[in-house]
Design brief:
The complex is a heterodimer of chains A (402) and B (66). Chain A is α+β, with helices and mostly antiparallel strands and 402 residues long. Chain A has a single domain, classed as Orthogonal Bundle (Cytochrome p450). Chain A contains 18 helices and twelve strands. In chain A, β8 (299-301) and β9 form a beta hairpin. In chain A, α9 (149-159) runs antiparallel to α13 (229-243). Chain B is α+β, with helices and mostly antiparallel strands and 66 residues long. Chain B is globular. The chains are: A alpha+beta (402), B alpha+beta (66).
């Protein structure tokens, strides 16, 4: 990893991998909202960060002036690695209209409430099983031994990968997560085992089709034709990349909140009817995901001079704390009734897995607080946040209280 | 009074049919759809307003009927 100079002013030199941004970005964003409100950086080849709800919404809804061709900020200008059109690396998140709609319509039925809600008993069983394994421990790890396992197992089952491969699959998640800022050459090498495993799974599913997402993608037809293998592969990769650390982060951040706010924990234990509102407030307050766009052409936009291929980092978590839209935006209100948060994005790229994420989050919290109605953080210094565009606590040592 | 979903704006966040399942349902893609003709009663108006105030896309409107 290259050593980067420290950020002096986030308004003119922001860096989402700066340690202060990673550990506690909220004061930074509040400051930016009050004085920019679109921050600039020369890092990563140049980019902008709108800190307000209005700015984030404008860009998210504007596919004329911004492209989703690359949604994760990398080192250097993006035009250097031209991406295959129109499919992109991981359709539909990396697709633009009109191809986007075709790719998205393909996967939406699999993530619609009907099939997703049918997974609830299996997810609950999974959570209970994980809690059973923690039995007898005074300090349990709500991150590494609980939050992490839930989405990894759910996504792996959904793709139709065998349970015996869960450890291999979790290793892939780490490869995806921890190498975000590795050089391109290194990255290709790191992804080789994932490519090899997926290719073997695709082949196995071609030979023995089953009732799972991989078989669905292999057999679904658009205009009388099956999908290109790159498209199948890309969507499988998307589900792996987007479906795991995001939900892991949301579950972890919610449990961390409850561990540090005993009043909210007590209310949630005693008033389960608050759960639907609590879930949305967890998502608003601790939204884990920021997504990038690329500027399509030179233009003045949101009052700043944007250049072709500049990055835009869409701070959904920042928009969620904009006092112009949310009353008492900086307060966590467990029974907040009006909550138009953007944790799952906005516009045509709304997180396709949001129904599944909400289900996992709800069941994970329900089962955890049922087993442990009182718990606190055992070691505050051990709680660290992951760097990157998915922010959440990874390691969560909780002391179980009587 | 009637509740309406603008299908052009709806992106399937699913907030309406989760909060007010008696008023909204979902289609095959997971987008929100109004059940029946969307006529609201004194009992359902508050729930419809709750759903409206939670739609991130501002896709729900409540029309005062003539």
């Amino acid at each position: 990893m290259t050593i980067k100079p420290p950020v002096e002013d986030f308004a003119t030199d922001w860096d989402h991998t700066d340690e202060r941004w990673v550990q506690d970005p909220y004061p930074i964003w509040e400051d930016l909202r009050s004085r920019c409100p679109v921050a600039h950086t020369d890092r990563y080849g140049g980019g902008w960060f709108p800190a307000t709800h209005a700015g984030v919404s404008a860009v998210a809804n504007d596919t004329e002036n911004f492209t989703s061709r690359t949604v994760v900020i990398g080192n250097g200008r993006p035009e250097e690695d031209a991406l295959p059109a129109p499919i992109g690396v991981a359709p539909p998140i990396t697709s633009d209209p009109p191809f986007h709609q075709i790719a998205r319509r393909l996967i939406l039925p699999a993530f619609a409430p009907g099939p997703v809600n049918a997974l609830e008993p299996r997810i609950r069983e999974l959570c209970v099983g994980l809690l059973d394994q923690m039995k007898g421990q005074e300090v349990v790890n709500g991150g590494m031994d609980y939050a992490q396992y839930i989405p990894a197992a759910v996504i792996s089952r959904m793709l139709g990968f065998p349970e015996k491969d869960d450890d291999i699959f979790r290793e892939f998640v780490h490869i995806v997560l921890e190498g975000v800022d590795h050089p391109r050459e290194e990255r290709i090498e790191e992804f080789a085992p994932i490519e090899e495993y997926f290719t073997a799974q695709i082949q196995d599913h071609q030979e023995r089709p089953r009732d799972d997402l991989t078989s669905y993608l292999l057999n679904v037809e658009v205009g009388g034709e099956k999908l290109a293998i790159e498209h199948v592969f890309g969507t499988m990769l998307l589900v792996l990349v987007a479906g795991i650390d995001t939900t892991w982060s949301a579950i972890g951040a919610s449990l961390l909140h409850l561990a540090t706010h005993p009043d909210d924990l007590e209310r949630l234990v005693n008033e389960p009817e608050l759960m639907p509102f609590a879930i949305e407030e967890f998502l608003r307050f601790y939204a884990p995901v920021t997504m990038a766009r690329l500027v399509k052409h030179d233009m003045d936009y949101l009052g700043v001079p944007m250049k072709e291929y500049d990055w835009i980092l869409l701070g959904f978590p920042a928009a969620n704390r904009d006092p112009a839209v949310f009353k008492d935006a900086d307060k966590f209100i467990i029974d907040r009734l009006e909550n138009r948060h953007l944790a799952f994005g906005l516009g045509i790229h709304r997180c396709a897995g949001s129904n599944l994420a909400r289900l996992e989050l709800r069941v994970a919290i329900e089962e955890f607080i049922k087993r442990y109605p009182r718990f606190e953080v055992a070691d505050r210094r051990a709680v660290t946040f992951a760097q990157g565009q998915v922010r959440g606590p990874r390691n969560l040592p909780f002391r179980v209280l009587a | 009074m009637k509740v309406v979903i603008d299908a052009e704006r709806c992106q399937g966040h699913g907030r309406c049919f989760s909060l007010a399942p008696g008023i909204f349902e979902f289609d095959d893609l997971g987008n929100g759809v109004v059940i029946g003709d969307g006529t609201l009663t004194d009992e359902t108006i508050e729930l419809a307003r709750l759903a409206q105030s939670n739609c991130p896309e501002h896709a729900i409107s409540i029309e005062e009927s003539a």
